[in-house]
TrEMBL record:
It comes from the Bacteria. The lineage of its organism: Bacteria, Pseudomonadati, Bacteroidota, Sphingobacteriia, Sphingobacteriales. Coiled coil: none annotated. This is Glycosyl hydrolases family 43. Belongs to the glycosyl hydrolase 43 family. The keyword Hydrolase applies.
Length: 325
């Protein structure tokens, strides 16, 4: 009996210890007005000492697209939200950065379509903020990038149109701006079988013809790319829709490859399911070159607007990524 109580106390203690590593875990992520933050599949722009969080606005009833061979649960695409913070703890709602439209299925931004994984970069040359996101039909057969532009980080962003880079499919995606100012779009292509890394034009508004195929036939999605000590790191998930699976990471000395797969960056309980999350971004912490936050979505596929968040700080030590929960 005594031992059972001791084990119980110890397990509560260690669980709390483990949980205390997470910055955000679950559905309770509020803005400074006390409202639930609605920013899924998110990305962060760090500009003028402010962090800007952009994400999918998921609002409304979840429904299942009929006739699909997979669990194609959808919620109306509410556009892209924007929040700002200087300490990564207090987030102010800056409103809707990119608005969706209702009742116009031929419009890329219609609520019946897909507006996912928005990412924003600042272009030093043009002084514009550029947003890319995954734009699609609700059966994911368009597989395109949507591109929008703004004079200020929070928007409103003007929609410029959609594109398939080099006529290749683009689904889950991220943007990455390198230290030399060059920017890249990284995306699941070829029906999610293979990822592509494509250099953008100098104004970040278009893909160039310079692209490379990576993680060939590895079926990866939700790319999150970051750089540490001159080396590139790419964390991805497997392809199992809204259901969690094991993450994996790859490294490269050049962003165009060759990329080497290393394995699961997560360890601890439920590491094989990425702690029930799917990554959306890796945020470098300003002023701490080896410190990052793994940002993920805790999808609730039957009620997508209730999906939560999991943010885990981690450090790259001796070139290795270790994300512990
Ligand atoms: C995966 C993707 C998400 C979304 C869902 C749709 O989880 O990573 O962004 O497209 O599939 O099922």
């Amino acid at each position: 009996m005594k031992y059972t109580v001791l084990i119980l106390i110890l397990s509560i203690f260690f669980n709390n210890q483990a949980r205390s590593q997470n910055m955000i875990s679950g559905g309770d992520f509020k803005d400074t007005d006390g409202n639930q933050i609605n920013a899924h599949g998110a990305g962060v722009l760090y500009y003028n000492e402010v962090y800007y969080l952009f994400g999918e606005i998921k609002k409304g009833k979840t429904w299942l697209v009929p006739g699909q061979s997979w669990e194609d649960y959808r919620v109306p695409a509410g556009g892209v939200s924007c929040y700002s913070s200087t300490d990564l703890k207090h987030w102010k709602n800056l409103g809707t950065a990119l608005r969706s439209v209702t009742g116009d299925p031929s419009n890329d931004l219609d609520t019946g379509r897909v507006i996912e994984r928005p990412k924003v970069l600042y272009n030093e040359k043009t002084k514009k903020f550029v947003m890319w996101f995954h734009n699609d039909r609700n059966d994911y057969q368009d597989s395109k990038a949507g591109i929008a532009i703004s004079d200020s980080p929070e928007g409103p962003y003007t929609y410029l149109g959609s594109i398939k880079p080099n006529n290749q499919m683009l689904r889950d995606m991220t943007l990455f701006k390198d230290t030399d100012g060059k920017a890249y779009v990284v995306y699941s292509s070829e029906d999610n079988n293979t990822m592509h890394v494509c250099l953008l034009t100098d104004d970040y508004l278009k893909p160039t013809e310079h692209y490379t195929r990576i993680l060939i036939d590895r079926n990866r999605e939700s790319p999150a790319l970051f750089k540490n000590n001159g080396k590139y790191f790419l964390i991805t998930s497997g392809c199992s829709g809204w259901s969690p699976n094991a993450a994996s990471y790859a490294t490269a000395n050049s962003i165009m490859g060759a990329w080497t797969e290393i394995g699961n960056p997560c360890s601890g309980t439920n590491a094989e399911q990425t702690f029930f999350a799917q990554g959306n971004y890796v945020l470098p912490i300003n002023g701490k070159p080896s410190n990052f936050i793994f940002m993920g979505d805790l999808w609730n596929k039957l009620d997508l607007e209730k999906s939560g968040y999991l943010w885990i700080p981690f450090e790259v030590i001796d070139g290795e990524v270790k994300i512990n929960n």
